[in-house]
Amino acid sequence: MSTRTVLHQADITRALTRISHEILESNKGPDGLVLLGIPTRGVTLAERIADLIGQFSGTRPPVGALDVTMYRDDLHRHPTRAPQPTQIPASGIDGRTVVLVDDVLFSGRSIRAALDALQDIGRPAAVRLGILVDRGHRELPIRPDFVGKNLPSARDERVNVRLSDVDGIEEVTIGS
To answer: In a 10 Å sphere around its CB, with 0-12 CB exposed, 13-18 middle and 19+ buried, how is residue 139 labelled?
Structure first.
């Protein structure tokens, strides 16, 4: 069982900085932005991106958490998944540009579930997707708008994102 580190702390910071600039450029500034992280690490990444956008633009966009557990179509394969709280900013999402943020994009099923969950909450003007690691192997036609690292991988390999706020260490590893 070999595992190698593909992103270190400085690489993750650089990727998030690039994503933050790309979000600002795409949106033509911070106005109307809402970042929704998909628990667990997506929320941490959304908070970091919001902080960076605030540093670059002077306005920090609101951040929330969007739990997709009950919207997943694979609960029968992962029945022990515990729901996390969904927290939508007080400003809501109606008419705003929502950037969904997650750590790893693989099959696309979590993002499909997130789109279903968003429908129950409101009607954004646009939905964008920011991902730290895109590893390919899509099962659904979902493509991220903002990517920190494209990481080609074998289907049976495991990509692990560890963030200091959650895991006490900052790295992305891949292994079998």
So the answer is: exposed
Tokens read off for 16: 């998030």
Distance CA 145, CA 155 (A): 22
| AA letter at 32 | G
Q: What is the edge-to-edge ordering of all strands in the sheet holding 97-105?
A: 63-65, 33-37, 97-105, 126-134, 146-150
pLDDT category, 116, cuts 50, 70, 90? very high
In our burial notation (b when 16+ CB lie closer than 10 A, e otherwise), range 105-137 reads bbbbbbbbbbbebbeebeebeebbbbbbbbbee
Structure tokens at 58: 């002077």
Q: Tell me if residue 125 falls in helix, strand or coil.
A: coil
Per-residue CA distances from 147 to 12, 92, 119, 144, 166 (Å): 11, 25, 24, 6, 21
Angle between the 41-57 and 9-27 helix axes, to the nearest 10 degrees?
A: 60
Q: For the segment 46-79, what is each residue's pLDDT rounded down to a tens digit?
A: 999 999 999 999 999 999 999 998 888 776 666 5
Domains in the chain (CATH in brackets) are 3-72+88-175 (3.40.50.2020)
